[in-house]
Design goal:
Elements: E1 9-11, H1 23-27, E2 35-38, E3 49-52, E4 66-70, H2 79-91, E5 96-100, H3 110-118, E6 123-126, H4 132-166, H5 170-182, E7 185-190, E8 195-199, H6 207-217, E9 226-230, E10 233-240, E11 248-254, H7 260-300, H8 305-314, E12 324-330, H9 334-346, E13 353-357, E14 360-365, H10 372-384, E15 388-392, H11 401-418, E16 422-424, H12 431-435, H13 440-461, H14 465-474, H15 479-486, H16 490-504, H17 511-527
Parallel strand pairs: 3-4, 4-5, 5-6, 15-16
Antiparallel strand pairs: 1-9, 2-6, 7-8, 7-11, 9-10, 10-11, 12-14, 12-15, 13-14
Helix pairs in contact: 2-3, 4-5, 4-7, 5-7, 9-10, 13-17, 14-15, 14-16, 15-16
Length: about 525
C-alpha cells in the first residue's frame, strides 16, 4: 500500500475480493462442526478460492485470498518449521487455514496455533469425518448465492438510477441515486476538479482533496481509475468518457471496503453519466451557436430594436442597460477557454453571451465596475491553469455593441504589444488615437514620417538609434536607467540621442517631440500585431 505521509489521502492498493464469503461464514455452516482454534481477529477475512495442498510451501502456486485445506503432511515436525509455515501463508495474503485432524496430527500443533494467533491468521480444525470437498462445496454454494443476490440487488439499483435519468434529474439525480444505493457517498467532478454534483451535500467538500490526489497520482487527462483512502473512507475514482473522451470523474466512497455490488452499480452510473454529459454538451453547443449568431447580428446592427430587446432578455441581459464586449485568448483551444468563461459567468448573477471566433473568445456582459475585468481574467486563468489575456471595450448601449467589440479587439492587441494580462480600451490613453486609425497604411505613413531617417541611418551604419530611442522613452528620459537597460555607458546613449535629434530635426527635451517619437514607435508595434 502506497501511503503519502502527512496527507489525509493515500493510495489504497489492498486486495478487494469479487465475492464476500468470509471465514466466519463457513464456521457457522450447520453439519460441518468446524472449530476456530487461532487467529480469531482475522475471522472476517474474505475467501476468494479454496485450495487443498500438502506442500510445505504452496505459496508459489497461489495468488492470495485462498483458504488452504491441509492434513499437515508437509508441515514438518519441529515448532520452527510449523511457525515458518504459517508465516509463509500469512505473508502471501491467504484467507486462512483449515487443518484436518485425525490424519497426521490429532489436533492443531501448538506452535502453529501460536503463530496464527500472533499474525491474526484464522485457523480452524476440520474433524476427521468431514471431507474437504464438503467445505469446498459450501464455499462455492455460498459464493454462487451471493452472486445471485448481488445481481438482483444491482438490477434494482440500476432501475432506480435509470429512473432518475428518465425523470429528468440529470447528473445530480444519478449521483443522488447512486449514493443511496451503495449506502455511501458519491461526487462527480468536472475536468477542472470542480464538483458537478455531490450526495450527500457534504460529499462536495471532498472534491479538492480527491482532485489533488488524482492529479498527483496519474494525469487526469489519461483517464485512469484510482483507488484511495480519504479520511478513513475507501474511495474509487473512475473517468466518465462519452464517445471515448474523458468529460468528468465519478468518485464513490464509504467506510467499509467497496463491494462487488458497489462497483456494479457505479459502473451503471458511469454509463448514465456519460449519456447525460454527452447530451449536456450537445445542448450547450447548440445554445453556444445561438448565442454566437445573435451576437453577430447584434454587432452587425441588423436587428430591429424589438428583436434586440427580445434577444437580450432571452440571454438574461436587460435591453435598457449598457453592455460591454470582452475579448479573451489563451494558449489552450478556444473551446476550453469558452467552457471556463461560461462556467465562471454561470455562477454569477446576470446573463452573458459568448462567441468564439478563430482563437479569440468574445463575451458580451453587463459592465460591473472597476476591477471586474481583472477578476474575470483571474478566475478563468485559475480554472484553466494557464494565463489568459483579456481586452475590454467601452460600455455602450446595445445598439452600439459593434463599437465595443472593435474596441475590445484593439485592447487585446495592446495586451500582446505590451505583454499585459488585461487592457481596458477606456484607459488606453494615447493608444486610443492610434487604435482608431484602422487603416494600416495610415499608421505606417505616420510612423515612417517620424522614424524613416533613423531607419536609414541604422541600416547604413548598423546603428542602434531606434532601440536606444525606445529605451530612452520607456525610461521617461532618465539617462542612467535607460543606459543601464541598454548595457551601455550614459555618454554613449547621449551621443545616440544627439544623433536622433540631428537626423530628425526634433528636440528630445520637449514633451511634444518625445510624444511624437513614442506614438511612432507604438504605431509600429501595433502594425507588428495586426488584428484578427
Amino acid at each position: 500500500m502506497a501511503v503519502r505521509l502527512g496527507s489525509p489521502l493515500a493510495l489504497y492498493g489492498t486486495y478487494n475480493p469479487v465475492v464476500t464469503v468470509l471465514i466466519e461464514d463457513i464456521l457457522r455452516i450447520p453439519g460441518l462442526a468446524l472449530k476456530l482454534v487461532a487467529g480469531r481477529a482475522g475471522a472476517s477475512r474474505p475467501i476468494r478460492w479454496v485450495h487443498v495442498s500438502e506442500l510445505e510451501d504452496p505459496t508459489p502456486w497461489l495468488r492470495g485470498g485462498e483458504l488452504i485445506l491441509t492434513t499437515g503432511m508437509g508441515l514438518g515436525k519441529t515448532p520452527a518449521r510449523q511457525r515458518a509455515y504459517v508465516d509463509r501463508l500469512a505473508t502471501a495474503g491467504l484467507a486462512g487455514l483449515g487443518f484436518g485432524v485425525g490424519f497426521t496430527y490429532a489436533k492443531v500443533p501448538k506452535a502453529l496455533a501460536d503463530a496464527a494467533d500472533r499474525l491474526d491468521f484464522p485457523t480452524f480444525e476440520v474433524p476427521y469425518p468431514v471431507p474437504f470437498i464438503a467445505i469446498t462445496e459450501a464455499v462455492f454454494t455460498r459464493a454462487a448465492g451471493e452472486q445471485v443476490e448481488v445481481l438482483q440487488r444491482s438490477m434494482e439499483a440500476q432501475q432506480a438510477l435509470t429512473r432518475a435519468v428518465l425523470e429528468g434529474a440529470g447528473v445530480r439525480g444519478v449521483v443522488t441515486a447512486l449514493s443511496g444505493a451503495i449506502d455511501g457517498w458519491a461526487v462527480a467532478l468536472d475536468l477542472h476538479g470542480l464538483p458537478l454534483a455531490g450526495s450527500p451535500r457534504s460529499a462536495a467538500a471532498r472534491a479538492p482533496r480527491l482532485w489533488e490526489e488524482l492529479r498527483d497520482t496519474r494525469p487526469p487527462e489519461l483517464g485512469y481509475s484510482v483507488s484511495m483512502v480519504d479520511r478513513g473512507d475507501h474511495v474509487s475514482v473512475q473517468p466518465v468518457g462519452p464517445r471515448g473522451r474523458v468529460e468528468a470523474f465519478l468518485a464513490i466512497g464509504k467506510r467499509e471496503a467497496l463491494s462487488q455490488f458497489d462497483r456494479i452499480v457505479a459502473g451503471h452510473a458511469l454509463s448514465l453519466l456519460a449519456i447525460e454529459l454527452d447530451k449536456s454538451r450537445a445542448v450547450a453547443e447548440a445554445e453556444r451557436r445561438l448565442r454566437g449568431d445573435f451576437l453577430d447580428t447584434l454587432v452587425a446592427g441588423s436587428l430591429s430594436a424589438r428583436e434586440a430587446t427580445r434577444g437580450l432578455r432571452r440571454f438574461g441581459l436587460e435591453a435598457d442597460g449598457q453592455v460591454e464586449v470582452v475579448a479573451m485568448e489563451s494558449e489552450l483551444p478556444v473551446d476550453d477557454l469558452t467552457w471556463a468563461v461560461e462556467d465562471v459567468l454561470s455562477r454569477r448573477d446576470g446573463g452573458f453571451l459568448t462567441a468564439p471566433r478563430d482563437e479569440v473568445l468574445y463575451v458580451l456582459i453587463r459592465p460591473n465596475g472597476d476591477g471586474a475585468l481583472e477578476q474575470l481574467r483571474d478566475e478563468v486563468s485559475s480554472r484553466l491553469g494557464v494565463e489568459v489575456v483579456a481586452g475590454a471595450g467601452s460600455p455602450v448601449a446595445p445598439a452600439e455593441t459593434g463599437r465595443s467589440l472593435r474596441e475590445a479587439r484593439y485592447a487585446l492587441r495592446v495586451c500582446h504589444v505590451e505583454r499585459r494580462p488585461v487592457a481596458d480600451f477606456q484607459t488606453l490613453g494615447t493608444y486610443r488615437l492610434l487604435l482608431t486609425l484602422q487603416e494600416p497604411d495610415a499608421l505606417r505613413a505616420f510612423a515612417d514620417s517620424v522614424l524613416a531617417p533613423l531607419d536609414r541611418y541604422d541600416g547604413e551604419h548598423g546603428g542602434e538609434l531606434i532601440p536606444s530611442l525606445r529605451a530612452f522613452l520607456d525610461h521617461n528620459a532618465r539617462w542612467e536607467s535607460a543606459a543601464a537597460g541598454l548595457f551601455v555607458h550614459r555618454h554613449t546613449l547621449r551621443y545616440r540621442m544627439r544623433k536622433v535629434e540631428e537626423l530628425t530635426g526634433r528636440d528630445l527635451s520637449t514633451p511634444h517631440d518625445r510624444m511624437e517619437f513614442w506614438l511612432a514607435i507604438r504605431a509600429r508595434d501595433l502594425l507588428a500585431h495586426p488584428p484578427d
